């Protein structure tokens, strides 16, 4: 049985937010909730910016599951961490425990009232019948049941965001890293797409220490 995982390649991400838009459109995510977001460090510093698409990473040892007082979280046979909104009491413990900030709460509720938690489902729906109206209204579209991959990964224009069988995407990422090389070879266009895509690119001279 495949274990579903996400990997985001920071060397390919161009901060287009296509994954964010695809997720909201596919699942009709409520106002104030972002199941996926793009985080950029060193924003505005030329040559130092790095962006990464972040959502629920469907951890093998998920801290949200450990702290939930009502056990609304469960893990599918494919390793996807889901939750039951009918059980959730909106306590917010999961949001404090998650290192990725995945659990979200609607912003249109009364002050002090969190409402039902919402998060990335890896496009795997919820506990309701696959493809049912109730499942879509609570959790969005169940693409995995349709034999498809998450919409965010499918829509990534540079294929920075990969989603699917953990072993397969790990092999893809490993191959990319090997092609990039190390030291002065890791820079610019060749870093993201390999030298074959830009044969005229040359590595900058390495400054020798006196």
The helix content, as a percent range, equals 25-40%
What's the average pLDDT? 84
Structural class: alpha+beta
Largest sheet data: 2 strands, antiparallel
Task: Calculate Rg over CA atoms.
Answer: 20 Å
Proportion of strand residues: 5-15%
Order of strands across the main sheet: 1-6
Could you list some keywords that capture this structure?
210 residues, alpha+beta, two-stranded antiparallel ribbon, globular, metal-binding, ET_IronSulfur_Cluster-Binding
Explain what this protein looks like in three dimensions.
- The protein has 210 residues and is α+β, with helices and mostly antiparallel strands.
- Helices cover 25% and strands 12% of the residues.
- The protein has seven helices and six strands, in the order βαββαββαααβαα.
- It has helices at 18-27, 63-67, 93-97, 133-139, 151-155, 166-180, 188-193; strands spanning 4-8, 37-41, 50-54, 73-75, 81-83, 161-165.
- The chain has a two-stranded antiparallel sheet. Strands 2-3 form a two-stranded antiparallel ribbon. Strands 4-5 form a two-stranded antiparallel sheet.
């Amino acid at each position: 049985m495949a274990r579903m995982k996400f990997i985001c390649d920071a060397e390919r991400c161009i901060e287009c937010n296509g994954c964010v838009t695809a997720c909201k459109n596919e699942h009709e995510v409520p106002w104030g909730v972002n199941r996926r977001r793009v985080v950029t460090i060193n924003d505005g510093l030329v040559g130092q910016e790095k962006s990464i698409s972040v959502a629920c990473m469907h951890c093998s040892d998920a801290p949200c599951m450990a702290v939930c007082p009502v056990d609304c979280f469960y893990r599918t046979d494919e390793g996807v961490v889901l939750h039951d909104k009918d059980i959730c009491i909106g306590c917010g413990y999961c949001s404090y425990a998650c290192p990725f900030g995945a659990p979200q709460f609607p912003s249109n509720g009364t002050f002090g009232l969190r409402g039902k938690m919402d998060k990335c489902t890896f496009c795997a729906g919820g506990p309701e019948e696959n493809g049912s109206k109730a499942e879509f209204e609570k959790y969005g579209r169940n693409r995995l049941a349709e034999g498809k991959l998450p919409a965010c990964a499918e829509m990534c224009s540079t294929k920075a965001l990969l989603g699917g069988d953990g072993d397969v995407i790990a092999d893809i990422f490993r191959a990319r890293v090997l092609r990039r090389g190390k030291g002065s070879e890791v820079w610019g266009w060749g870093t993201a797409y390999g030298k074959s895509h830009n044969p005229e690119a040359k590595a900058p001279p390495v400054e020798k220490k006196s």
